[in-house]
TrEMBL record:
The keyword ATP-binding applies. It holds the Pfam family ABC_tran. Coiled coil: none annotated. Keywords: ATP-binding, Nucleotide-binding. This is ABC transporter ATP-binding protein. SUPFAM superfamilies: P-loop containing nucleoside triphosphate hydrolases. Gene3D superfamilies: P-loop containing nucleotide triphosphate hydrolases. GO terms for molecular function: ATP binding. InterPro entries: AAA+_ATPase (IPR003593), ABC_transporter-like_ATP-bd (IPR003439), ABC_transporter-like_CS (IPR017871), P-loop_NTPase (IPR027417).
């Protein structure tokens, strides 16, 4: 097996906080896996992804991406990974094409190569006819798809997605998931967070259920369902393990 991400006893406490958002978290992710990080609000999923993407520092613990650390190889890692954040990272008054040209240029892409890639992805994701319209005129589902393209123009080997299908209709969701499956089939390792448990059950090759910063259990969706007596789907596993009370994170 080819380990692409190795996490060892990661802890994160935000400045001024009196609790850890990530606690003693260890996990190994293999090439071409689709790993779902599933957990209630405030469980620590975004914090974990932000650490792995080099956006924030862990308080303690170590991790490597393809054997590399940010301390020594930040630039190489930047080229290996793609990030699709929860919040739209798009400029509303620019067109879809202008936004994507800007994001591509951040990775050193330019000219015909960049233009062709933008056209290819806009076509696959059903947006080519909206290429020259301003983002502010787009629906939520269209913005999510542009946000996704912005994160993958440089063909990352490892893709991090924070709730890529939140707030979109079923058509946009299906287009996004089909597209991600195709990227994965070609070799991309995917780490994603979601609150759609049925989607995660179908989409992920492995799932880690996270609560209060810790991994409760991880394994294939089938393994998780078999591990909890009486559970027939991931939602039942999730509710059994994380409880049914509301979680409101600040
Ligand atoms: N910048 C920050 N400063 C202080 N505390 C933070 C910060 N970001 C997150 N937290 C806290 O860390 C904990 C984990 O938050 P995080 O956003 O990682 O959870 P999450 O699992 O992604 O939640 P959600 O499903 O709601 O997106 C929460 O208690 C949150 O309030």
């Amino acid at each position: 097996m080819n380990t692409v991400i190795q996490i060892h006893e990661l802890f994160k406490k935000y400045k001024g906080a009196d609790f850890f958002s990530v606690k003693e978290l260890s996990l190994a992710i293999q090439q071409q896996e689709i790993v779902g990080l599933i957990g209630p609000n405030g469980a620590g999923k975004t914090t974990l992804i932000s650490i792995l993407c080099g956006l924030i520092h862990p308080t303690s613990g170590t991790f490597t991406i393809k054997g590399l650390t940010y301390t020594d190889h930040a630039l190489q890692i930047k080229n290996l990974i793609g990030i699709v954040p929860q919040e739209y990272a798009l400029y509303p008054t620019l067109t879809a094409r202008e936004n994507l040209t800007y994001f591509g240029s951040l990775y050193g892409l330019k000219g015909k190569n960049l233009k062709n890639k933008i056209n290819e992805y806009l076509t696959i994701l059903g947006l080519i006819h909206f290429a020259d319209k301003r983002i502010e005129t787009f629906s939520g589902g269209m913005k999510r798809r542009i946000n996704l393209i912005a994160g993958i123009l440089h063909d990352p080997e490892i893709l991090f997605l924070d709730e890529p299908t939140v707030g979109v209709d079923v058509q946009s969701k299906n287009v996004i998931i089909d597209f991600l499956n195709e990227l994965n089939r070609k070799g991309t390792t995917i780490i994603y967070t979601s609150h759609h448990l049925a989607e995660a059950e179908d989409f992920c090759t492995r799932i880690a259920i996270i609560d209060e910063g810790r991994i409760f259990i991880e394994g294939t969706p089938e393994f998780l369902i078999q591990s909890v007596a009486g559970a027939t789907n991931l939602e039942e596993v999730f509710l059994t393990l994380t409880g049914k009370k509301l979680r409101d994170a600040l």
